[in-house]
Amino acid sequence: MKCVKPLLLATAIATTFAAGANELNTVIDKSSAINESASKSQAKIDSITDSMQSRLNKFKTLNKEIDGLTVYNAQLTKQINNQIEEMAAINASMDQVSVIERQITPLMLRMITGLEQFVALDVPFLPKERAERLDSLKKLMERADVTSSEKFRRVLEAYQVEMDYGRTIEAYTSLLPVNGQEREVDFLRIGRLELLYVTKDGSHAGSWDADKKQFVELPESNISQINKGLRIARKQLAPDMLTLPVHAAE
């Protein structure tokens, strides 16, 4: 009977130890499960964090693009408003085109007539060239394939050519009746101040008399000065003083 108690005690201890071991295994298993679950949760958290960071970066990028587009749209709005104003101005100008064209054509015709009268009263240098220029302007005015702006430009160009004659010196060759005989002569034009000539053989010289409206013969003493002037005009001689008679037009 005395041997039974230790046996029972050992059995009880073994049973208790086995139960504790089972509970420990259970705790360890649960702890492992918890760790695994925590690891999965952390992975999910990391994935969510990465996703949120990526979306945040995209959000910041989009905000920058929106700011840029806002500035760009504001600039475009200004440009569009300016273009609208310009179109309105162009439309208003187009409405006046026909009116302006009706006014500019008579003006050009009057300018050509005035230029023709001026040439007729002027010193008679380069008569053929100046007459052809006037004739060209008259024919130009009749053409429908030339714009009014081009016609006006050509008229102003003709006026400019005539103005330039007044401040230049020129030498040219042409035919002129001398003592009842048509002869080839060298003309010397000094602005509009004087128009002189000398025959090719140097035997006769003359100048335009504005009062008499004809060429008058000059003494032979003027021939050398006229020849000198011709050489200056042709750039064969440096500019120098000339002693010549003057018959200026009023």
Structure description:
Helix content is 65%, strand content 14%. The protein has 250 residues and is of the alpha+beta class. A hairpin with a 4-residue loop joins β4 and β5.
- Characterize the main sheet: 5 strands, antiparallel
Cα radius of gyration in angstroms: 55 Å
Distance between the termini: 173 Å
Structural class computed from helices and strand pairing: alpha+beta
- List SSEs in N-to-C order: HHHEEEEEH
Summed up, the helix count is: 4
What global shape is seen?
Answer: rod-shaped
For the biggest β-sheet, the strand order reads: 1-2-3-4-5
**Low-confidence segments, ≥5 residues, pLDDT <50?**
none
Record field, number of beta strands: 5
The percent of residues in helical segments reads 55-70%
What average pLDDT do the residues reach? 84
Give a nutshell description of this structure.
By secondary structure, this protein is of the alpha+beta class. Among the domains are: 107-164, no CATH class; 169-233, no CATH class.
Provide key terms for this protein.
14% strand; five-stranded antiparallel sheet; single chain; 4 helices; DUF3450 domain-containing protein; 250 residues
Q: What secondary-structure arrangement, pairings included, does this model have?
A:
Blueprint: H1 4-121, H2 127-141, H3 148-165, E1 169-178, E2 181-190, E3 194-199, E4 205-209, E5 214-217, H4 223-233
Antiparallel strand pairs: 1-2, 2-3, 3-4, 4-5
Helix pairs in contact: 1-2, 1-3, 2-3
